[in-house]
UniProtKB/TrEMBL annotation, chain A:
It comes from Desulfuromonas versatilis. It comes from the Bacteria. This is 2-oxoisovalerate dehydrogenase subunit beta. Keywords: Oxidoreductase, Thiamine pyrophosphate. Gene3D superfamilies: 3.40.50.920, 3.40.50.970. Transmembrane segments: none annotated.
Automatic annotation (TrEMBL), chain B:
PANTHER family: 2-OXOISOVALERATE DEHYDROGENASE SUBUNIT ALPHA, MITOCHONDRIAL. Keywords: Oxidoreductase, Pyruvate, Thiamine pyrophosphate. CDD domains: TPP_E1_PDC_ADC_BCADC. The keyword Oxidoreductase applies. Its cofactor is thiamine diphosphate. Heterodimer of an alpha and a beta chain. Its EC number is 1.2.4.1. This is Pyruvate dehydrogenase E1 component subunit alpha. Residues 44-330 form the Dehydrogenase E1 component domain. It catalyses: N(6)-[(R)-lipoyl]-L-lysyl-[protein] + pyruvate + H(+) = N(6)-[(R)-S(8)-acetyldihydrolipoyl]-L-lysyl-[protein] + CO2. It comes from Desulfuromonas versatilis. The keyword Oxidoreductase applies. Pfam families: E1_dh.
Length: 325, 358
């Protein structure tokens, strides 16, 4: 096993899957010769040729719509959208076609495809490069939405996503693309979609976080541990489908829950998880579920983004609120 | 000059200044010496401002920046053709056009330094803020032109975008709408050869981008984008067409991006340095300097003096931008709506409380 960051781990997953299955094809803006603007697809065009790592014209709807057409004929396209902020021209394809085809044709057709994209803030990027509109996707029927929070998970989840018989949107938290290194296995080690990871064990409260927010939650848990409070951290790893059982089980044990996400609050996943706990764990709750989230505002430009992103201070505040209720 | 004289379907390209700086006397616009020198001053200002942004970025004092080096002539020439009442709809590489239109240097710096204040461009300048999503703003230009038409005003709209944008669906919708409505808009494509790492040849199989106008029912014209006079003439003619109710024009200015796509990009990964070096000889400043020299309007001392005065202005603006107060937490919320809705007011005070607690 080698130490890898998330970029390297995703690259490994792509390489392994392309070697395993000649129907796996990459396409997107700058994925080929340049190896992607974040170097995630580096070296793959050299290895597999221009017909399997396709530099496309600058057209997101074109990328996703054509990937859909390829998937209809049995290929396994892995499309890259350069930043989540540029997804929206392709969103029409996703909601109007990609997510509906299996149901609409009663299973005659399906779209086994993956759409990868870096998302989220915290890297001082320009406008439209830091959004985290994950809830739009989780709200879209017929697609799965996967978000890794560590290199090993990224590799294992992406391999599962590529092998999944249905469309998967794979959101890569670019803030931690290179911030974490860990041992990443090679070969047939898959991480199943829709299964949460218990990042930390604790009995006093549950922090639910995904993507780059897992690391923030870990910082908060360390701080709380110093005060004798043990926080459990659950990373759902897929926000659609959501591992409801893992979240409910943890909150039944701790009685308190803080959901941390960097996406805007209203109609965000925090609201979904809060409703879930109302339905399935009401009598175990010792405090209302707290949401620490981004705001219902435009993501600020670099000079103001620290106000927007949940940080240690805001997570601790949320934790105190549920502990002192 | 007539647009139809330069039919892109017949492979014609408008050029007034040859790469050696020789002007076609038939086409050379009637500028006096002072105006001819002023054009050089603007080209030079663009170059120096751009280089200063690149330098500040490397020092960590400015965020990601999209350099304009090599494309100055397209922007200087086209802005020169505008009337005061015309609107400019830029993408994100129109720094030079912004400067020529009078957007304060400090404002431009503030945008790239990561502050919303950099998009606070006075409405009187009729210059929209930077548009990062590629190609989507071409529709805004079409809509603005439709509004001008509806109100019976005499203005026109000039919309800039790159070759990559012509692949986006919105570009096609913009040309469709503008063509159908005969809206007073000029679509100005700065074909700089590369959409990040993808060359023009892999962006579209058509022989020319200018010819696309024909498919939407209006003329296209291909020009030498490193020639400020060609940019001026084509834009002026297209604006006249727009104002006289004849509808839109598509201009394809063939230029070259000498620098990276942005400061986050490394062009050495996908293009040969030899190509860049070849294009350096054709870049607008070199060509225009030759032109002035041949007319006895240029001297090294004059250029040095000009550069020093531009540089002082640039550095002063950069200093002011850097010492501007940082955004307040309230600023995250307060411009979202005309009146702050209750849920945002709650989120705002929540953030303020959290910051107060420390």
């Amino acid at each position: 096993m080698a130490q890898m960051n998330m970029v390297e781990a995703i690259n490994l997953a792509l390489r392994e899957e392309m070697e395993r299955d000649p129907d796996v094809i990459l396409l997107g803006e700058d994925v080929g010769k340049e190896g992607g603007v974040f170097r995630v697809t580096e070296g793959l065009q050299q290895r597999f040729g221009e017909n399997r790592s396709i530099d496309t014209p600058l057209a997101e709807s074109g990328i996703v719509g054509c990937a859909f057409g390829m998937a209809l004929l049995g290929l396994k396209p892995v499309a890259e959208i350069q930043f989540m902020g540029f997804l929206y021209p392709a969103y029409d394809q996703i909601i109007s076609h990609v997510g509906r085809i299996r149901n609409r044709t009663r299973g005659v057709y399906s779209a086994p495809m993956v759409i990868r994209m870096p998302y989220g803030g915290g890297i001082h990027a320009p406008e439209h490069h830091s959004e985290s509109t994950e809830a739009l996707l989780a709200h879209t029927p017929g697609i799965k939405v996967v978000i890794p929070s560590s290199p090993a998970d990224a590799r294992g989840l992406l391999k599962s996503a590529i092998r999944d018989p249905d469309p998967v949107l794979f959101l890569e938290p670019k803030r931690i693309y290179r911030a974490i290194k860990e041992e990443v296995p090679e070969g047939e080690v898959l991480v199943p979609l829709g299964k949460a990871r218990r990042v930390r064990e604790g009995g006093d409260l549950t922090l639910v976080a995904w993507g780059a927010m897992v690391r923030e939650a870990q910082k908060a848990a360390e701080e709380l541990a110093g005060q004798g409070i043990e926080a459990e951290i659950i990373d759902p790893r897929s926000i659609s489908p959501l591992d409801e059982a893992a979240i409910v089980e943890s909150v039944k044990k701790t009685g308190r829950c803080v959901v941390v996400h960097e996406a805007p609050r209203t109609c965000g996943l925090g609201a979904e998880i809060s409703a879930l706990l109302m339905e399935q764990a009401l009598l175990y709750l010792k405090a209302p579920v707290e949401r620490v989230s981004g705001f219902d505002t435009v993501m600020p430009l670099p000079k103001g983004e620290h106000f927007y992103l949940p940080d240690l201070r805001r997570i601790l505040r949320g934790a105190r609120k549920v502990l002192e209720f | 000059m007539k647009i139809s004289d330069c039919d892109p379907l017949q492979g014609r390209r408008l050029q007034v200044l040859s790469p050696e700086g020789k002007a076609d006397p038939e086409l050379l616009p009637e500028f006096d010496d002072e105006s001819l020198r002023r054009i050089f001053g603007q080209l030079l200002m663009g170059r120096l401002f751009d280089r200063h942004c690149m330098a500040l970025q490397r020092e960590g004092r400015l965020g990601t920046y999209a350099p304009v080096e090599g494309q100055e002539a397209c922007q200087v020439g086209s802005v020169l053709a505008l009337a005061k009442g015309d609107w400019v709809v830029p993408s994100f590489r129109e720094t030079m056009a912004a400067i020529c239109r009078g957007v304060p240097l400090e404002t431009i710096f503030r945008y790239w330094m990561g502050s919303e204040e950099g998009s606070r461009i006075p409405r009187e300048l009729r210059f929209l803020p930077v548009s990062i999503p590629v190609g989507s703003h071409t529709l805004h230009a079409a809509g603005m032109a439709m509004a001008i038409q509806y109100k019976g005003e005499a203005d026109a709209v000039l919309c800039y975008f790159g070759d990559g944008a012509t692949s986006e669906g919105d570009f096609h919708e913009a040309l469709t709408f503008a063509g159908v409505r005969r809206a007073p808009v000029v679509f100005f494509c700065q074909n700089n050869g590369w959409a990040i790492s993808v060359p023009r040849s892999k962006q579209c199989a058509a022989a020319s981008l200018a010819a696309k106008g024909v498919g939407y029912g209006f003329p296209g014209i291909q020009i030498d984008g490193n020639d400020p006079f060609a940019a001026y003439l084509a834009t002026r003619t297209a604006l006249e067409r727009a104002r006289s109710g004849e509808g839109p024009t598509l201009i394809e200015a063939v230029t070259y991006r000498l620098g990276p796509h942005t400061t986050s990009d490394d062009p050495l990964r996908y293009r040969e340095n030899a190509e860049v070096e070849k294009m350096r000889a054709l870049e607008p400043l070199v060509r225009y300097r030759q032109f002035l020299k041949q007319r006895g309007l240029w001297s090294e001392a004059w250029e040095n003096e000009l550069a020093a005065s531009h540089q002082a202005r640039i550095e002063d603006a950069a200093r002011r931008a850097e010492s501007a107060p940082p955004p307040t937490p309230e600023s995250v919320f307060d411009s979202m709506f005309a009146a702050l809705p209750a849920h945002l007011a709650r989120q705002r005070s929540e953030l303020l409380d959290a910051l107060k607690e420390g």
